[in-house]
Amino acid sequence: MCGRYATTRSATDLSAMFEASDETGDGLAADYNVAPTDAVPIVRRTRRVESPVLSMARWGLVPSWAKDASGAARMINARAETVATTRAYAPSFAARRCLVPADGWYEWVRRSPKERQPYFMTRRDSGVLAFAGLWSVWGEKLMTCTILTTAAVGELSLVHDRMPVALPAERWRQWLDGDAAAASALLGPPPAEYLDSIEIRPVGAAVGDVRNDGPRLVERVAAAPLGAPAEGPQDLTLFD
Fold first, then answer.
1. DSSP secondary-structure letter at 63?
2. Which pLDDT value is given to residue 229?
3. Mean pLDDT across the stretch 198-213?
């Protein structure tokens, strides 16, 4: 399974957007090609301060009871349908929810047996996306996180059958501060007007190599319209 997204805003910008205290130090840098186990910014609650905090976490949740961190790359996504009952995620869903800021996420559509077209899903108004996430601490200090996913709806279902749970700003506080029942109410797709604000942008093949980075990865390229007949299965998965 592959998984990529982009998060390029500075700690100063994210702290202002989420009204959060910055605890990232010098660890946050623009990344147009985030891959599993990379360090990423998250917004979470802590008992130490009243406001939310902006922290760094490794993408791929490692439960506190895990013997080692080797399975993190398989834990980058948690299914919304089972997150409250799955052993690895349920404790974090109950008490350690977070927001995962992003510029957008990538998916690949198979156009033919030899051709895969990547797409970048991003806000048309250049606003921040906030994915519903969970965090955990493994060992003494390794903070890790995962992104929740749900069934894709609308045009997004033409790209993949799953999508991240994206939370509009009016839902951020409920996700961070509400109880499990309140959080469960947010696990479906966002409102229709929010979905309409998401652009499905064809981008170049360079994003497929984790060594590539930079704004060129999110530049629009010419591509066949979504929904046009394609040969072969669409079998590349980002958000499971």
1. -
2. 63
3. 97
Catalytic (active site) residue 81: no
- pTM across the whole model: 0.93
2 classed as catalytic: yes
How many angstroms separate the Cα of 46 from the Cα of each of 35, 52, 96?
26, 7, 9
> What is the per-residue burial (b if ≥16 Cβ within 10 Å, else e) of 118-150?
bbbbbbeeeebbbbbbbbbebeeeebbbbbbbb
Pairing type for strands 39-44 and 5-7 reads unpaired
Beta bridge partners of 199: 122
Q: Which amino acid is at 150?
A: T
Given the residues 23, 107, 193, 231, select the one marked as catalytic: 107
Contact 31/213 with Cβ under 8 angstroms?
yes
Tokens of 157: 């279902």
Catalytic residue (choose from 2, 23, 155, 199):
2
Question: Do 212 and 158 form a contact (C-beta atoms < 8 A)?
Answer: no
Q: Give the pLDDT score at 236.
A: 43
Question: Is the confidence at residue 238, as pLDDT, over 70?
Answer: no
Which candidate, 68, 43, 62, 39, places its Cα nearest to that of 53? 43
Buried b (16+ CB within 10 A) or exposed e, 30-58: ebbbbbbbbbbbbbbbeeeeeebbbbbbb
The two three-digit tokens of residue 146, written as one number: 């995962």
Q: For a pLDDT cut of 70, what percent of the chain falls above it?
A: 94
